[in-house]
Write a structure and sequence with these properties.
- By secondary structure, the protein is of the alpha/beta class.
- It folds into two domains: about 5-240, Ribonuclease Z/Hydroxyacylglutathione hydrolase-like (Metallo-beta-lactamase, Chain A, 4-Layer Sandwich); about 240-395, 3-Layer(aba) Sandwich (Rossmann fold), CATH 3.40.50.360.
- The chain has twelve helices and 20 strands.
- The strands form four sheets. The protein has a seven-stranded mixed sheet with strand order 1-2-5-6-7-8-9.
- The model has no long low-confidence stretch (mean pLDDT about 95).
Amino acid sequence: MKPVEINKGVYSIRINHFNRKFFDSLIPLPDGTSYNAYLVKGSTYTALIDTADPEKKEVFLDYLSKVEKIDYIVSHHAEQDHSGLIPEVLARYPKAIVLTNAKCKELLISHLHIGEEKIRVINDHDKLDLGGKTLEFIFTPWVHWPETFSTYLIEDRILFPCDFFGSHMATDELIADSQVIYEPMKRYYAEIMMPFRNNIKTNLEKLKKYEIDLICPSHGPIHKDVKFAIKCYSEWALAEPKNKVLLLYVSMHGSTFVLVNRLISRLQEHGIEIEKLNLEDADIGRVAMAMVDAATIVLATPTVLAGPHPKAIYAAYLASLLRPKTKFLAVLYSYGWGGKTVEFLSNVLSCLKAQIVGQVGVKGLPTESDLKLIDELATSISEKHQTLLNTQAVLK
Ligand code: FEO
């Protein structure tokens, strides 16, 4: 294996992990993933940009067997899928110095026990001349850890943003096809970046002044269509939510499902886009993606013992962790004899800061009067969406 030249003196070291099923033992990886490092060779110095997951140590070191010298290791992010092999690189290239910011230094020392003397701290907008190749370090924090930063290769107009703009996708295609990459990139955004929308906004603003021809992330293929990648992130992070309801449901004996179907038909009459996902077997990456732009999330659940179905709790907790820009919430529930389903879900969802538009609970199979309550809920949701759309129109 040898690094692939992507521009003169700039090389990609992409370690594909086609059969990895989960990231963080949590996130399903339908397309696998890759850990991308890059090499920048100047006339004087060579810099390695990030490393790879220790699980792929042999492959990574095999790539490096063709690399004569490494003077600097730029470590953008202390999470081990990018930093985990720094100790191995230092062992192979003992003169190499790790370049990182103060926060990342602290994390590298605690997570990987890298010697303090091996690390040189860089500051925002510091530049390093490798000999005809100048690296500028740009702090882009909280995408998605506090220490994250990016590197801009000035002469080649290449941005190395680490996880930012990444996608969990193993592929031998060097350059992303916009049609193909859209979903993996959105999935990655939803699962990893969505809670940090405000930081993304600040970071996108900061990157505006740079002329970028290539974005080389640390997962997935390279973006040559830079405008497309930035437009996607801008829409997902900054645009107002759409006239869309995400219906997350699970049903045990069919009562909840009757409520769900009635709500869908009424919302359709109001011209609202609906995405429904059955939590019984939903891929949580798909749930996360569906949350990106829905103005309303409706959780529908039966009562198990005295509370919501565990899969509904899981979805509610996921929403509270990922903090989508959802404005409104509603709960549909059925029960046999009682319980505290709404109280439980409201607590879990409280940090979303979305308005609860309504709740409909039924004991056993819904009656006609229960279904009328669903119709009223659909009307309330539609009115809320209309107000939101009107506000957006005024602000444009
Ligand atoms: Fe790909 Fe946050 O590590």
